[in-house]
Amino acid sequence: MTPEELETFLGLRNSTVMATLNPDGSPHMTAVGYEYHDGIFSVSTTRDRVKYRNVAADKRVSLIIRGRLEEGGGETVVVVSGDARLSEDREEAVAMLRRLVDKSYSKDVADRLFEDRKDEPRVVISFRPKKTSAWLQIGRSALNCPTEETAMDFFEVVHTQRSIRRFKPDPVPDEAIWAMLDAAIRGPSGSNSQPWIWLVIRDDEKREIIARAVREHFEKTGRWEEMKSNLKSAEDPSRRRLLGRAIDFFGNVASAPVLIVPCLVRVTSPDTEPRSLLSGSSIYGAVQNMMLAARAQGLGTVLTTFNTFIEDELRSTFHLPDNAVPVCVVPVGYPDGQRFGPTTRKPVDTVTYWDDWGATASRPS
Q: What range defines the domain where residue 277 resides?
């Protein structure tokens, strides 16, 4: 690929993954935004990110960029590799953050994102490619369906999965969806009854029907004003981010290019009442499998239960039979401005008892 061809490709809408090397030599891959000027790629990040720590120890880095040169054509994948340079110039890193959010979002969303993130300990990773490779990928996507050599470590998937509520409009490849569903059906169910159907919704008009029903419910119940009031009074930055993203998402559920509605169907074990807590044990483990498989492919998800107040619309729009009960709605897409984990949780030793209620133990460091 010539420099001119690369410039043209980078000017198209694309999604990008940065690959760095973990201490054990395995690859770490994470979605990123980047800038490209005078033959140099630059990424703004923070010192607490895995990619920063990896590059500080081993400067080898690659960007894997995918996009389509023509509408309806095959996916073009470009890999650029080189030796990274770390810049601790925080002012430069913050300025880059500002440019990236301005480029990707509306002014209101960009301003809020920038305010939330501008005080982070930001740095810049940059490199001039030593090697550029490109190929046309038709069918199975090397990015979205990792091979044994590029698959993420299981515990990294678990520890970095988080709720994603902002999505790029990029379509999710069929193969990625099939991989998610194939992981889902490996989940546990009572007596191995597998009482589920997975309804995948990609049609624009049908996703908009769902989005409109959600908006109307929020308007009718006063939920919008309640959430906006909570956002205004929230002092914790992470709480403000969560509320802001929730308001944006519930205002436009159709922004997710895929919605998946898991349904319990003819459940018999461990309970025959599909809306009971026990019956949920026969499908929610499978839902988590599906969401972890999405994370492993660089796709974002969030577990929502707004199906509970739009069930009539779901039934009429998708012709659900009486014995099918939606248990949640899982939006799926490539994250737009949100990052995967690490997530914040209570320390495990504070929520674990050993052999008797209240009997705690310290976890060895």
A: 155-333
